[in-house]
Amino acid sequence: MVLMTHFIFRCRDIGNNCEFSVKARNAEDLVPKIRDHIISHHNVPTISEELKDKINSSIKMRPL
User: Which residues does 44 contact at the CB level (< 8 Å), separation at least 6?
Assistant: First the structure.
């Protein structure tokens, strides 16, 4: 039996009062979507290394 998983990011998990969430089959596919959301909806001009670390640590793997 193969266990299918996906990765999920929730904006509220990094401390924002925001309902945005996104999921994908791998974490790498999430990064551009998260970056675009943070820049356009939270008025963040660039993603700092600290924010990247926060984002990466909040991405969770879940079973489908």
Answer: 38, 51
